[in-house]
Write a structure and sequence with these properties.
The structure is a single chain. The chain is α+β, with helices and mostly antiparallel strands. It has a domain at 124-288: Nucleoside Triphosphate Pyrophosphohydrolase (Alpha-Beta Complex). 13% of the residues lie in helices and 24% in strands. The structure holds 5-O-phosphono-beta-D-ribofuranose. 5-O-phosphono-beta-D-ribofuranose binds at residues 125, 127, 166-167, 169-171, 223, 225, 234, 236, 259, 276.
Length: 293
C-alpha cells in the first residue's frame, strides 16, 4: 500500500505486516489473533473477530503511560492536543470502540489493549535519517558498478529490545517539539550523550544542532511497528539530515548509548533490512538524492 502524505514523500510502505501475526514482542508467548490481509480494515464487517487482550505488565504506573481507561479522573481529549500529550493522529482522525478506546486507523492487529505502548491511541516518535555519500579510498564518490549510481550511508543503531538495526529515533516527550526530540534522540542513542560530561554534552549538542539545522521532513504518519495493537500504535516524523561533503558528520564520534546496543554507518540499498517500516523511509530518501537503492 502506498501512502501519500501532504508535505512528505510518497512512501512505498506496506502497512500491518510487522504488527500482524505471530507472537507479540517481549510478551512471553502472547499470540496475536490471525487477521487475514482482506480483514485488516475495520470497514470489513467481522463480528467473530476476537483479538487477544494484552497490556504488558511493564506499562501500568510508568510516567510515560496513560492509566486504564476506567481510572478515576482520566478524561483524555481524543484527537486533540491534551495538555502536553498530543493525542492527534497524523494518519487520520480515529474512532473509538464500544469501550471508549481509540481504534487503530489502519485496522486490525489481532491484539487489543496497549501491548508495550504507553498511550492509548497514537504514540508519537521522531526519527533522524543522517546520511552522507559512500566514498572510495581516494575520497571520490563510490559508484555502483552496473548502475553507476552513488550510494548513501546512514547512521543506524542496533536496538536493545530485539537486536534489529533501526533509525536512532525515539519517543517525543510531552510538550517537547519534534525537532528537539529528533536531535535529543540522536545524541542519546548514536553519540551516548547521556554518559558524557556536561561540557562534552554541550559540544555534542552544538555539533548536532549545526548539521540538523538543514533538515528536511521526509515522512509523518503511521509506523508498521511490531508493538502496535488495535488501540495503541506508533507514529513518527522523520527528518533527513544529509551531509553532502561528509565533513560535518565525519566529526561525529559515534558511540551507542541509551536504548542502543551498537551504532554504525550502514550502506543503503534495497537489501537494507531495518526495524518496523524504517526501510521505506530510507528508500524515499535514497530516491530523493538519486542514490542507489
Ligand atoms: C518506531 O519506534 C519509531 O519509528 C521510532 O524509531 C521508535 C520509537 O520507539 P523507541 O525506540 O523509543 O522504543 O516505531
Amino acid at each position: 500500500m502506498r501512502r501519500l502524505l501532504s508535505g512528505c514523500s510518497s512512501l512505498p510502505m506496506k502497512l500491518h505486516v510487522k504488527c500482524r501475526g505471530g507472537l507479540y514482542p517481549l510478551s512471553d508467548g502472547v499470540q496475536r489473533a490471525d487477521v487475514p490481509e482482506d480483514r485488516v480494515a475495520w470497514s470489513v464487517a467481522w463480528p467473530e473477530y476476537a483479538p487477544v487482550a494484552y497490556t504488558s505488565p511493564v506499562v501500568p504506573g510508568k510516567p510515560w503511560a496513560d492509566p486504564e481507561l476506567s481510572a478515576a479522573g482520566f478524561q483524555p481529549r481524543w484527537n486533540a492536543l491534551d495538555g502536553g500529550v498530543d493525542r492527534r493522529s497524523q494518519q487520520a482522525e480515529y474512532a473509538l470502540d464500544a469501550a471508549g478506546a481509540p481504534l487503530n486507523p489502519v485496522g486490525r492487529t489481532g491484539v487489543s489493549g496497549r501491548g508495550l505502548l504507553g498511550r492509548w491511541g497514537p504514540n508519537h516518535a521522531a526519527d533522524p535519517l543522517v546520511t552522507r555519500w559512500r566514498r572510495a579510498e581516494d575520497g571520490t564518490l563510490w559508484r555502483h558498478p552496473s548502475s553507476g549510481r552513488p550510494q548513501l550511508q546512514l547512521v543506524t543503531v542496533q536496538r536493545r529490545d530485539c537486536g534489529l538495526w533501526a533509525l536512532p529515533g525515539g519517543m517525543v516527550d510531552p510538550g517537547e517539539r519534534v525537532t528537539a526530540a529528533v536531535q535529543r534522540e540522536f545524541q542519546e542513542e548514536a553519540l551516548n550523550a547521556l554518559e558524557a560530561s556536561p561540557e562534552r554534552r554541550r559540544q555534542l549538542a552544538e555539533l548536532v544542532r549545526q548539521l540538523f539545522a538543514g533538515g528536511r521532513r521526509v515522512y509523518a504518519g503511521y509506523v508498521d511497528d511490531p508493538r502496535n495493537t488495535d488501540n495503541a500504535w506508533m507514529e513518527t516524523e522523520a527528518y533527513n539530515f544529509h551531509d553532502e561533503t561528509g565533513t560535518a558528520v565525519g566529526a561525529f564520534p559515534l558511540q551507542a548509548g541509551d536504548d542502543a546496543r551498537a551504532v554504525r554507518w550502514t550502506d543503503v540499498s534495497g537489501e537494507t533490512e531495518l526495524y518496523a517500516s524504517h526501510s521505506a523511509m530510507v528508500q524515499a530518501v535514497a530516491e530523493t538524492h538519486g542514490a542507489r537503492w
